[in-house]
Specification:
It contains twelve helices and 16 strands. With 469 residues, the chain is an alpha/beta fold. The protein has two domains: 310 residues, Alpha-Beta Barrel (TIM Barrel), CATH 3.20.20; 95 residues, Immunoglobulin-like. The strands form three sheets. Strands 5-4-3-2-1-7-6 form a seven-stranded parallel β-sheet. Helix 6 crosses helix 12. The longest helix has 17 residues. The N and C termini lie far apart (53 Å).
Length: 469
């Protein structure tokens, strides 16, 4: 995974020349081209082929798992902990995750409302979770002696769950990878024989194995192209072998979708919408993407808000967990996923087959999705009170429901003292259970008796008393 704190030193150099691919070209975040994000973005264009599963599944499970799970500190333990390679590789002698059961992972995934899964096949440490012929540093040459990717692939195929594969380009074990001490690299190793062409041959053969030996694969998730090397033939090979696989933008060309990570990508976090496919990613743990024994966890509200923020803008979302060295997803991580799953199940209709509309309400921290004569109001940012004014809407809905509870929302269209200058009444949602439900995101479903173009009308008031009770 990219770690933005490591890249901060280069941010100033790249900011002027790089526009995140998931933000529209007219974004206000492009300092070279001042302007506004288009006020209204239609649904992101689909691929028009087998990759369109990506726009149906929307929310997936990310899993970081490997040798680093044994020590339980960080998925980059070898690098961040300054562990000599000769010591780190000894962890392979302890790799024996006898409690790994892919069916249990998928049970939790589905209970959490997730609809696809992405697993690390090889992280930066170079340890491979499949039966690869390209290196001995793999799961088959351990006490476990089983192909992890094969087991998960079989379980996914049986249950018709899309499987995506993560692959790190940086490699701290393969002797031909040119470790030069750049970000997310080891310093030069005396036992290495740096040769980029030979390493690329190694990489291509591993990718070929992953795309040939495990049935249908639905995605390829590159990470850490430290040399920023470009070679579109690699993704072309993936597309030939796996035509339904979506490919992210961290590999050897721009790929199919952008990958804003955690809360580091401010343009993606603040954008009103996207004009290209996006899949944001976040982990339940605050410190590590892999298993950490004494992890600190994000609050439910922080994670739910993050998920809602992207799904409401027609983007995808991956939420990560790090299994233990035994192959178990930690109890607290699982509990977080289940709690989020309960929220998502109740509000799912606000994301499914809806369009995002950033123009309808210009209220910071509130997102709108819509379908026909219905709008869904996502109170993404914590409200400061128990009422919300939905300016400029001034037509009362025929039905207003809080999806979180299924209960009716108290609504009114009336003139508030704060709007005395315009003398215009607006729709208000009143007596919301904000204190009782402070650790979640409220979603209101408002159904109107007219096309949505007609829910804002001009009113000439002769009195400032309440119009509708």
């Amino acid at each position: 995974m990219k770690r933005r704190e490591i890249l901060k030193t280069t941010a100033a150099l790249t900011a002027a020349s790089f526009i995140p691919p998931w933000v529209g070209a007219n974004s206000k975040f492009d300092s070279r081209m001042p302007g506004q994000i288009p006020e209204k973005l239609s649904s992101i264009p689909r691929f028009g082929d087998g990759r369109d599963w990506f726009f149906e599944r929307r929310y997936g499970m990310f899993v970081h798992w490997g040798l680093y799970s044994i020590s339980g500190w960080h998925e980059q333990h070898q690098w961040r902990g300054r562990v000599p390679r000769a010591e780190y590789i000894k962890l392979a002698n302890q790799w024996n995750p006898t409690k790994f059961n892919p069916e249990e992972w998928l049970d939790l995934m589905e209970e959490a409302g997730m609809k696809y899964i992405t697993l690390t096949t090889k992280h930066h440490d170079g340890f491979c979770l499949w039966d690869t012929r390209q290196t001995d540093f793999n799961t088959m040459n351990t006490p476990y002696k089983k192909d992890v990717i094969g087991q998960l692939a079989d379980a996914c195929h049986k249950r018709k769950i899309p499987l995506c594969l993560y692959y790190s380009i940086a490699d701290w074990n393969q002797p031909n990878y040119p470790n030069q001490g750049r970000h997310h690299e080891l310093p030069p190793q005396p036992q290495d024989s740096p040769d980029w062409d030979m390493y690329m041959h190694f990489l291509k053969e591993q990718v070929r194995e992953l795309c040939s030996n495990y049935g249908e694969i639905h995605g390829f998730w590159w990470d850490m192209n430290v040399p920023v090397f470009k070679d579109p033939t690699i993704n072309n090979m993936i597309r030939k072998l796996q035509p339904n696989a979506v490919i992210n933008n961290r590999g050897f060309d721009e790929g199919d979708f952008g990958t804003p990570e955690r809360d580091y990508d401010n343009p993606a976090t603040e954008a009103k919408g996207f004009d290209k496919p996006v899949e944001a990613c976040q982990s339940v743990g605050m410190e590590s993407w892999g298993f950490k024994k004494d992890e600190d966890y994000y609050t439910d509200r922080h994670l739910i808000s993050s998920i809602d923020k992207y799904l409401a803008r027609d983007a995808n979302y991956l939420l990560n967990v790090g299994p233990t060295g035994e192959g178990l997803i930690p109890a607290e991580s699982a509990a977080i996923l289940r709690r989020i799953g309960k929220w998502k199940k109740k509000v799912d209709e606000s994301f499914d087959h809806t369009q995002t509309d950033s123009a309808l309400l210009g209220i910071p921290g509130i997102y709108v999705t819509k379908e026909k004569q219905t709008i869904y109001v996502h109170l993404n940012k914590s409200t400061v009170g128990n009422g919300v004014k939905l300016k400029p809407i001034n037509v009362l809905p025929v039905k207003a429901t809080l999806l979180n509870t299924g209960k009716k929302i108290d609504c009114a269209v009336n003139l508030c003292p704060s709007d005395h200058a315009s003398q215009q009444p607006y729709l208000r949602l009143r007596n919301l259970p904000v204190n009782d439900m402070s650790n979640t995101v409220l979603v209101a479903k408002l159904e109107f008796d007219r096309p949505l173009e007609g829910i804002t009308i001009s009113k000439n008031l002769t009195t400032n008393i309440e119009l509708i009770k």
